[in-house]
Amino acid sequence: MKLTEYITLFHRQQTGQLGAEEAQAFQQEHDPELHQELDELWSDSRSYKAGYEPDVDKGFSRLKFRMEADQPREAKTVQLKTKSGKWMRAAAAIALLIAFGSYWFATADDAAQGLVYTTASDEKIQITLPDASVVYLNEHSYLSYEAGEGKRKVSLTGEAYFEVASNPEQPFVIYSNDVRTTVLGTAFNLRAYPDEPTVEVEVTEGHVRMEKDQAAQKIELQPKERGIFSMDKQRLYKEPSPELNAQGWRSQRMVFRDAQLSSALKEIGRYYKVEFKLKNPGLQDCALSTEIKADPLSNFLQVLEAVYGLEVQKSGPATYALSGGRCN
């Protein structure tokens, strides 16, 4: 079980959201040392007051060594540092979420304007926020909401589709992996999983501004545009997204018209929760035109075999090697 999944189940246990099957999985993966550290953080966070900004780095300093120790011993290379960095991004986001969640439960009697939601594996939920905004939260995601001081403030780790209720006097601001997304009233998809190298916003309607926190980077997004922040390159940019395929997890539909094969495989892999490894570099720029409507993965694999003559082999639990082939 991934560390992020373990912390999700811990949070759901503390807030009374843990189902029977989840409880059994949580018990099987019980880690006394890690559980004690999370218990202490949870207990400390219950004393947070309004306006308090959690010191995430300090709050997770003791967990840092634990996360590094979780890595295989033989991986003590440059790759280890990369993985460790991803764990720390996950830890930071979850620490902040726990802080918000604890604040809500600790101050509920005072009618605080804070809420927190989490989803487990294969779980998607629909949320109606106090301001009438609607959020569709994808699996393995964490969302906190707080209203006050002239704005609606959301923290998101994972993926969600937002239908934001318009209120020009109280902007809707989302924080995710050092990226700030500001809207007044619009609909868009935001993906910010801590173990992925990008934060992505895809706009259905309205107008969205993406900014890199503490940096002079800002882009404005219109409908059918996607904004991307690369954490590796620390660069914010946008590109056309005419078919809104990033929302396939919610709509169960994806359309590709003369799309670059390598890019399409990345998006389709997200949809099916698998990774495609294209062995023939000469096929990366091949054009792909297809439509997926809640089709099983086997159907798409048959398309690859028939259209490009690819040999498809399963090379791991969620990995497919694509060999040979030609552009049609």
Element string (H = helix, E = strand): HHHHHHEEEEEEEEEEEEEHEHEEHEE
Helix content: 25-40%
- Given the structure, what is the number of helices? 9
Rg, alpha carbons: 21 Å
Based on helices, strands and strand pairing, what is the structural class? alpha+beta
The biggest beta sheet, please?
13 strands, mixed
Number of separate strands: 18
Compute the separation of the termini in Å.
42 Å
Overall pLDDT: 79
Which word captures the global form?
Answer: globular
Taken as a percent bin, the fraction of beta residues is 25-35%
General description of the model:
By secondary structure, this protein is an alpha+beta fold. Helix content is 32%, strand content 34%. The chain contains 9 helices and 18 strands. The strands form 3 sheets. Strands 1, 2, 3, 4, 5, 6, 7, 8, 9, 10, 11, 12 and 13 form a 13-stranded mixed β-sheet that branches. Strands 15-18-17 form a 3-stranded mixed β-sheet. A two-stranded antiparallel sheet has the order 14-16. Helix 1 runs parallel beside helix 6 and helix 5 packs across helix 6. The radius of gyration is 21 Å and the shape is globular. The two termini are 42 Å apart. 30% of the residues are buried. About 20% of the residues have low confidence.
Compact summary:
By secondary structure, the protein is of the alpha+beta class. 32% of the residues lie in helices and 34% in strands. α1 (3-14) runs parallel beside α6 (78-107), α3 (32-45) crosses α6 (78-107) and α5 (61-69) crosses α6 (78-107).
Q: What distinguishing features does this structure have?
A:
alpha+beta, 32% helix, 328 residues, globular
